[in-house]
């Protein structure tokens, strides 16, 4: 209920009346005046109540009168009355019905009571009520009231004192509250007159309003009183204590800062009065040194705890609230504060000072102001720095200095100290079981417990609150440390959170600005940053020194955590502000704490060196950065090996190390963006920790707990084992979080990892110890998570892995480098980039480039990795490689022979995959690279199967080209246009292999060139396979090439290849190759390199020849076909003349192939066949078969048209004209020359005495050579001259003369008994046959060649008796050749000679009458040649020979003699007759004897032959004697004569004599002789002469024989004559009887007289023979004598005879 409600007023009136009544009752007896006053007061009240509606107001107006009775009552000094009156007065006051005057009266009355010492508590109460309920008391009245309270404070009564103290405090507060209320009331209503500037008169308070004036006066006097001066306003003060004054000052300053800040008068008071006062009061504390000698010049006043402590409280308030006013003064205060922390000050002083510092530390804005006002000004004390450093050195001093004079440390003082230790004395929970260890710091033997002193962020002081203590309290051990520790943490927390808030606000503003002003640059306020940086710069050294020391000394996990958190926060803040040195220093501290003590890690040491040795002076004190000692008793959780190049002992990790490691991970994880170059420190440390803990990288670079085997010395406790996966996980998360870093930070991270990796590599380089793979693994991990911006880190990342790691000597290191690199590339290609890789060629090439670079690494394991990853890339991303193909193919193709098989095999797998799956997806420009790569696999020599398979791949590739020809052509031509355009712009010429062939053709040419290279590979199998593929490809797909390209194919591919093969073959090694690979047997035909090359040569030559054959018309349209033809022939010739039978024979086969070129069908109807031949399906052709060569096609560039374009050359024969005919004949003559040169060189016998190894051509070769001639001749016959025929003859003769090597003879020679020709001999005869047939049907002028042919054939005929010699070679005749003795065996030439002879006869039969044959004396030559076998007769190598010779002679003569007679007059046959006579002579009277084994039947047959000859003479020669030279006839006669009385050899047996005597022959001779002797057809005297001559010779011979016989018989006596002689005589006798018969038959006129005389003269001799003893002779004699009876006639007269 409010005091002004009617009920309250009514109650008040009632109460007042009651009070007055009570008063009058009490005073009735003793104090009548009072009674009267009371009663009149009742009346007064009633009157007021009756008269006024506003009762309270009326009461207030009349309050002096109303109060009067009560005042009088107090004056009685009677306790009961006084109490009653005071209560009544208080009731009035509480209803605010007391006027100013009344109040003054009340105060005066109270003062009297006070002086009398009555009702002191009631007095205080009344004053309080009076001042608090209203504001009527002012000025002196107020001051009197205040003094009254003060005086009551100093009474003897404790309760009164305390109550008075409280009242004073309240009253002081009321005064200031009134002022604040007054200010609020006047706010904004009245403008103040401006305050007078420079007002020095402290009494000039005229400008202040009433309440303000009171406050001012009060405060001023408080200062006076504390300073022990007389007050100005508070008149009547009798005594005052400083402590109470200071408390009051503090409370006013603390509670009403606004007053001082808003009113200049008050500010002035602060500056002029308060500050000097404080400084003055501090002096004893400043000068005092604990433990200083008493011999100092002047005794020093000892510091007094209560004052000192209160002063510090005042200072705290001043700094807190009035810092802006009192900048200079605060500087002094703060410096003083710093001094109080000094070790020489008393413990309690240091404790309260540290509490004061703590109070400052929780006010970051204040700290910032210090920094701005002092540290950032020139020539000013660096106050902020000093505060931090003071804290630092304070903490250090606690560890270093023993706690002097404070042995009762642990007996906790009363009050909050004890409370503090009970709250936080124990460390955080029990660590092991029940044993509770108190949280503490321990350093170099100093153990300091840690207490919980205040909640974080608030400075709850203990000793600054001990206002009741007069003596300095004892400080528990560890209290100061705990406060300092809290102060440090709060300082860090406050500053960092403040700066970070402001940074965040600034960043927010910046972002907003960018949104609203997109184009402009955000300009932050420069000042703010400066302040932040200055604050950090000022405090970091001290902080670091203190925190490092504490961290080192901490034994409590929570404390450690807090310290680490502080270090982390500062480090990250420094990073954000770009303060590198402090950032690195803090990070180094954390790093060092993570590692075992004294662990050598260069990065940290070098960084720390820049800090150690610096000390920061604080007013003569120094704070030294103490290096950690780490003797703290921490729980050991792991023992491991240090990561160092030289093996060292083991190192120990404690749980604190791991805790620090976690902080480090946390730092890197959350603040990676600001680490910059410190990444190096962080990562180096992590690497070492990871190593000591034995974590090893797994796939993707994630670290896993390694194998325990890592080192016998690695010991991990279970505690750490459970922690390891967590650590590994954070490590991974740390690098995963790199995806949130900005580009610059990311680069810092990568650089740090790279340099770390370099270090690890250096360590691992000298040995094959397990290297530290931390850096490489993390590079990989970082790369993998930053795929979206891989471009910015790709080069440094891959560059490092490539140039350094993959080339490292340590295999494990290399392996990981390659693993990382390939994993990155694979991930990069698989990542879904934006834009996709297909549209971002540059990125794709960037990603693939390192893969290519890996090829330069020489280590096989790296290449293996590279190729495996290529395989995986192909399998997963093969379709999307696009422009990356050249790089990938480059990698596949970068094989060298010094790499092992497995590498090549892997690479080849990749290639196979490419060829089978990816040819259609790659750009056409890469096809050439595919060809090159496949080629390089063909040429590698490590793995034969791969070489062979790669050739197969090339075939598949060619098939692909063929099938996709059209598409490829279009793509390539587009590409070509673009390139040409570029080249033109640059002004260069387009440089491309096989330019200017069209690009598609170039692709083919590259393929051909590659296969060509493989055709000269050192390995025979590769050559063979490549050769077959090359020619098959050209055959199958050559049609796609444009005509001009064929020029390149011929010259640059085929001839180039032939040349190389020829060179290699001719220089190949002839050494025998031992069986390859142990169990592989090599056939003897391939057992030298030379023989293996021979096979290649054969294949190549055949292939080229086939192409020339099948593509003849196409090639002929090239300008230089003739040159090409010449070159090809030259190759054929050199192959044919090579000393290898296989090659030479094959060369001839190729020669045959190119010569048997049939003119292709010229008819357009055959176009279809041609298409089918080149593999175009007929479907394409049928609908178009109507077009002719000139008609344009409907479809542009259809397949058929292209084929027409390519094949036109083949399908259209050149128009039959002179030119092509001429050209043809030139080609044929060129071929003839080649044939001639080949023949001449191969059949020319060796000149000197032959060495063992001289080369002799084989029979099949010669056969083939000769067999070529007929075909060739068909084309050159028109111009074939005699000269050429001679050349031919030489070759044929030479060929036939070549012997056979003995090891081949069984296969070529027929057995001796068979008369069979070898194929070579057949071929020779065929060649001559072709010639003579051609001559036969040819023009006249050809017939002059007949004689030459005869001559050639006759030469061959001679072979029957005289085998040809081949140089000076010794050959054995086949009959007596034991195959193993003779090197060379001559052929059996008889069948050949005989066949030749038959040919001669045959030919002569046809040509006997030809002029040339007559003129060239062919007949004579035939006879001359036959003379040899005829003369040898039985001595001929073969019996058949002379028989054939005879029959041939007979045939020839039967044709030739008539011709000879016909031309007798011309004399062309003159020389023939003597030859013929000699031939008859040699044959009929041979010098050779028949072999002994000739049977009688044989002999008779042979005789019959002789008889035939004589018959020829009798029929063909003698009847024409008049046409025949006389000498010849004479010779014939003599011969017949000889034959008619032929004497035989004496070797016959009796039984055979009749047969062997050739009686039949003799008889025929004789008859012939006689027949011609008595011929009655004598047409010329010459003929008669011949007959006569013949007869006389015969008779004379008979005479001689008979006479010799008679004599011999006589001489021999009884002995029988030799058989021979007997036979002869019998023969003569028979001849005589025959003659007698002939004479009988002849007309007498035909017989010459001389003849008769000779016949008669025989008679006596015959008679003489009668005496002979031989019965045979006797019987023959009878027959001879018998006919004489017919001539016995009587003689006729002479005359008659003479007349006739």
UniProtKB/TrEMBL annotation:
Where would I find the Mon2/Sec7/BIG1-like dimerisation and cyclophilin-binding domain in this sequence? 8-183
> Where, if anywhere, are coiled coils annotated?
965-992
Q: Does the keyword Coiled coil apply?
A: yes
Residue span, Mon2/Sec7/BIG1-like HUS domain = 212-383
User: Membrane spanning segments where?
Assistant: none
Any idea where the Mon2 C-terminal domain is? 916-1691
Stretches assigned to the Mon2/Sec7/BIG1-like HDS domain: 833-912
Which GO BP terms sit in this record? protein transport
- Domain of life according to the entry: Eukaryota
Q: Does the keyword Protein transport apply?
A: yes
User: What keywords would UniProt list here?
Assistant: Coiled coil, Protein transport, Transport
Protein family: Belongs to the MON2 family.
Q: What is this protein called?
A: Protein MON2 homolog
Which species is this record about?
Pogonophryne albipinna
């Amino acid at each position: 209920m409010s005091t002004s409600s009617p009920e309250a007023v009514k109650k008040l009136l009632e109460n007042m009346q009651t009070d007055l009544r009570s008063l009058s009752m009490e005073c009735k007896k003793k104090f009548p005046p009072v009674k009267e006053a009371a009663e009149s007061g009742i009346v007064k009240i009633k009157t007021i109540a009756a008269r006024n509606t506003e009762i309270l107001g009326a009461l207030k107006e009349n309050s002096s009168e109303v109060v009067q009775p009560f005042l009088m009552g107090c004056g009685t000094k009677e306790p009961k009355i006084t109490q009653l009156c005071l209560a009544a007065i208080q009731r009035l006051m509480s209803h605010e019905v007391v006027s100013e005057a009344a109040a003054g009266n009340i105060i005066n009355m109270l003062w009297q009571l006070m002086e009398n010492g009555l009702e002191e508590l009631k007095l205080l109460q009344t004053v309080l009520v009076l001042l608090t309920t209203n504001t009527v008391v002012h000025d002196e009245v107020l001051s009197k009231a205040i003094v009254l309270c003060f005086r009551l404070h100093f009474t003897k009564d404790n309760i009164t004192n305390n109550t008075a103290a409280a009242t004073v405090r309240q009253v002081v507060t009321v005064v200031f509250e009134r002022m604040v209320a007054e200010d609020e009331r006047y706010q904004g209503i009245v403008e103040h007159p401006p305050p007078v500037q420079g007002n020095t008169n402290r009494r000039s308070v005229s400008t202040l309003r009433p309440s303000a004036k009171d406050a001012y006066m009060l405060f001023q006097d408080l200062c006076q009183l504390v300073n022990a001066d007389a007050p100005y306003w508070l008149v009547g003060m009798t005594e005052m204590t400083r402590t109470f004054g200071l408390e009051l000052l503090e409370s006013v300053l603390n509670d009403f800062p606004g007053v001082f800040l808003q009113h200049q008068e008050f500010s002035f008071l602060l500056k002029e009065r308060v500050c000097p006062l404080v400084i003055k009061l501090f002096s004893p504390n400043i000068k005092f040194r604990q433990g200083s000698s008493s011999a100092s010049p002047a005794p020093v006043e000892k510091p007094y705890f209560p004052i000192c402590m209160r002063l510090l409280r005042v200072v705290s308030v001043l700094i807190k609230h009035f810092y802006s006013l009192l900048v200079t003064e605060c500087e002094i205060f703060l410096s003083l504060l710093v001094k109080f922390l000094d070790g020489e000050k008393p413990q309690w002083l240091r404790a309260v000072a540290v509490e004061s510092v703590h109070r400052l530390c929780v006010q970051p804005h204040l700290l910032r102001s210090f920094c701005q006002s002092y540290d950032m000004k020139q020539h000013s004390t660096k106050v902020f720095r000093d505060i931090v450093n003071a804290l630092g050195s304070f903490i250090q001093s606690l560890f270093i200095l023993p706690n002097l004079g404070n042995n009762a440390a642990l007996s906790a003082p009363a009050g909050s100290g004890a409370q503090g230790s009970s709250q936080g004395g124990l460390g955080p929970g029990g660590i092991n079981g029940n044993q509770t260890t108190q949280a503490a710091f321990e350093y170099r033997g100093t153990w300091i417990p840690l207490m919980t002193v205040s909640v974080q962020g608030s400075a709850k002081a203990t000793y600054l609150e001990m206002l009741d203590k007069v003596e300095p309290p004892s400080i528990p051990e560890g209290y100061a440390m705990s406060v300092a520790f809290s102060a440090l943490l709060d300082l860090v927390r406050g500053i960092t959170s403040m700066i970070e808030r402001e940074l965040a606000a600034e960043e927010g503003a910046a972002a907003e600005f960018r949104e609203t002003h997109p184009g402009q640059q955000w300009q932050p306020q420069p000042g703010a940053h400066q302040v932040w940086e200055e604050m950090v710069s000022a405090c970091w050294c001290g902080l670091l020194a203190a925190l490092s020391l504490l961290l080192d000394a901490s034994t409590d996990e929570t404390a450690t955590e807090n310290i680490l958190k502080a270090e982390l926060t500062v480090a990250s803040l420094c990073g954000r502000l770009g303060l590198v040195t402090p950032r690195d220093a803090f990070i180094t501290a954390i790093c060092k704490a993570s590692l075992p003590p004294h662990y050598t890690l260069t990065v940290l040491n070098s960084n720390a060196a820049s800090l150690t040795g610096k000390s920061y002076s604080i007013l003569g004190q120094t704070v030294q950065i103490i290096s950690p000692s780490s003797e703290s008793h921490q729980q050991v959780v792991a023992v491991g090996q240090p990561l160092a190049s030289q093996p060292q002992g083991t190192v120990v990790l404690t749980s604190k190390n791991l805790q620090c490691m976690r902080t480090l991970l946390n730092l890197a994880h959350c603040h990676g963006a600001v680490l910059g170059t410190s990444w190096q420190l962080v990562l180096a440390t992590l690497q070492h920790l990871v190593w000591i803990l034995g974590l090893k990288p797994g796939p993707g670079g994630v670290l896993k707990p390694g194998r325990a085997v890592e080192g016998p010395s690695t010991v991990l406790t279970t505690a750490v084992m459970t922690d390891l996966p967590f650590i590994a996980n954070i490590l991974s998360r740390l690098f995963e979080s790199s995806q949130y870093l900005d580009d610059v930070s990311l680069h810092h991270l990568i650089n740090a990892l790279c340099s770390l990796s370099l270090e690890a590599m250096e360590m691992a380089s000298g040995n094959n110890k397990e290297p530290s793979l931390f850096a490489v693994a993390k590079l990989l991990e970082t790369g993998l998570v930053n795929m979206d911006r891989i471009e910015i880190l790709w080069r440094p990342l891959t560059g490092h892995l490539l140039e350094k790691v993959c080339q490292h000597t340590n295999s494990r290191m290399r392996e990981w480098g390659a693993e990382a690199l390939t994993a990155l590339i694979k991930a990069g290609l698989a990542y879904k980039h934006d834009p996709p890789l297909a549209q971002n060629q540059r990125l794709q090439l960037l990603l693939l480039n390192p893969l290519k670079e890996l090829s330069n690494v020489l280590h096989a394991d790296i290449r293996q990795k590279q190729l495996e990853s290529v395989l995986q890339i192909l399998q997963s991303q093969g379709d999307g490689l696009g422009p990356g193909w050249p790089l990938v193919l480059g990698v596949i193709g970068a094989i060298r022979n010094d790499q092992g098989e497995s590498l090549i095999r892997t690479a080849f797998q990749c290639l196979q995959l490419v060829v089978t799956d990816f040819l259609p997806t790659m750009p056409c420009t890469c096809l050439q690279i595919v060809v090159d790569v496949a080629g390089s696999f063909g040429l590698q020599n490590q793995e034969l199967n791969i070489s062979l398979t790669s050739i197969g791949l090339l075939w598949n590739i060619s098939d692909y080209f063929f099938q996709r020809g059209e598409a490829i052509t279009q793509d390539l031509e587009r590409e070509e246009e673009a390139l040409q355009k570029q080249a033109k712009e640059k002004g260069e010429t387009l440089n491309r292999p096989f330019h200017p062939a069209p690009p598609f053709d170039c692709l083919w040419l590259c393929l051909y060139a590659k296969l060509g290279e493989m055709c000269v590979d050192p390995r025979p199998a590769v050559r063979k396979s490549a050769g077959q593929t090359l020619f098959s490809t050209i055959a199958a797909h050559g049609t796609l090439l444009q005509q001009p390209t064929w020029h390149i194919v011929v010259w640059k591919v085929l001839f180039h290849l032939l040349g190389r093969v020829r060179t290699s073959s001719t220089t190949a090694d002839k050494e025998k190759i031992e069986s390859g690979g142990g169990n592989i047997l090599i056939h003897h035909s391939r057992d030298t390199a030379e023989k293996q090359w021979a096979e290649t040569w054969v294949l190549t030559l055949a292939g080229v020849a086939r192409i020339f054959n099948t593509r003849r018309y196409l090639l002929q349209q090239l300008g230089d076909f003739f040159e090409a033809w010449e070159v090809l022939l030259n190759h054929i010739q050199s192959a044919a003349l090579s000393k290898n039978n296989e090659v030479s024979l094959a060369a001839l086969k190729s020669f045959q192939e190119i010569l048997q070129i049939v003119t292709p069908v010229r008819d357009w109807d055959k176009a279809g066949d041609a298409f089918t031949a080149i593999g175009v399906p007929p479907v394409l052709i049928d609908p178009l078969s109507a077009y002719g060569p000139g008609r344009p096609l409907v479809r542009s560039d259809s397949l058929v048209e292209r084929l027409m374009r390519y094949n036109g050359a083949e399908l259209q024969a050149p128009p039959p004209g002179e030119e092509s005919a001429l050209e043809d004949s030139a080609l044929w003559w060129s071929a003839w020359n080649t044939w001639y040169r080949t023949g001449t060189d191969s059949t020319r016998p060796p000149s000197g005495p032959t060495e063992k190894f001289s080369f002799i051509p084989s029979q099949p070769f010669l056969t083939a050579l000769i067999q070529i001639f007929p075909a060739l001749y068909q084309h050159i016959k028109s111009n074939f001259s005699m000269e050429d025929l001679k050349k031919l003859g030489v070759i044929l003769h030479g060929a036939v003369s070549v012997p056979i090597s003995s090891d081949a003879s069984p296969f070529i020679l027929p057995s001796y008994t068979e008369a069979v020709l070898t194929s070579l001999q057949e071929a020779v005869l065929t060649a001559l046959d072709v010639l003579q047939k051609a001559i036969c049907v040819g023009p006249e002028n050809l017939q002059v060649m007949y004689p030459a042919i005869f001559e050639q054939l006759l030469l061959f005929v001679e072979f029957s008796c005289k085998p040809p010699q081949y140089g000076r070679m010794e050959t054995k005749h086949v009959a007596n050749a034991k195959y193993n003795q003779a090197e060379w065996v001559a052929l059996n030439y008889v069948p050949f000679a005989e066949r030749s002879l038959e040919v001669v006869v045959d030919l002569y039969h046809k040509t006997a009458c030809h002029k040339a044959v007559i003129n060239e004396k062919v007949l004579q030559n035939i006879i001359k040649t036959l003379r040899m076998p005829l003369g040898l007769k039985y001595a001929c190598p073969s019996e058949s020979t002379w028989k054939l010779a005879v029959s041939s002679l007979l045939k020839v003569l039967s044709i030739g003699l008539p011709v000879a007679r016909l031309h007798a007059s011309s004399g062309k046959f003159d020389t023939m007759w003597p030859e013929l006579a000699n031939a008859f002579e040699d044959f009929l009277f041979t010098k050779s004897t028949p072999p002994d084994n000739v049977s009688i039947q044989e002999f008779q047959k042979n005789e019959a032959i002789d008889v035939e000859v004589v018959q020829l003479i009798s029929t063909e020669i003698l009847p024409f004697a008049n046409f025949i030279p006389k000498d010849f006839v004479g010779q014939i006669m003599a011969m017949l004569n000889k034959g008619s009385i032929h004497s035989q050899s004496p070797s016959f047996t009796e039984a055979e004599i009749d047969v062997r005597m050739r009686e039949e022959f003799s008889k025929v001779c004789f008859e012939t002789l006689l027949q011609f002797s008595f011929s009655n057809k004598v047409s010329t005297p010459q003929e008669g002469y011949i007959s006569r001559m013949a007869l006389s010779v015969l008779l004379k011979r008979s005479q001689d024989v008979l006479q010799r016989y008679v004599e011999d018989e006589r001489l021999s006596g009884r002995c029988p004559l030799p058989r021979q002689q007997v036979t002869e005589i019998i023969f003569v006798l028979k001849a005589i009887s025959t003659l007698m018969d002939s004479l009988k038959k002849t007309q007498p006129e035909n017989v010459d007289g001389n003849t008769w005389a000779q016949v008669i003269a025989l008679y006596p001799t015959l008679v003489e023979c009668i005496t002979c003893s031989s019965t045979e002779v006797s019987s023959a004699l009878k027959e001879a004598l018998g006919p004489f009876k017919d001539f016995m006639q009587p003689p006729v007269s002479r005359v008659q005879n003479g007349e006739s």
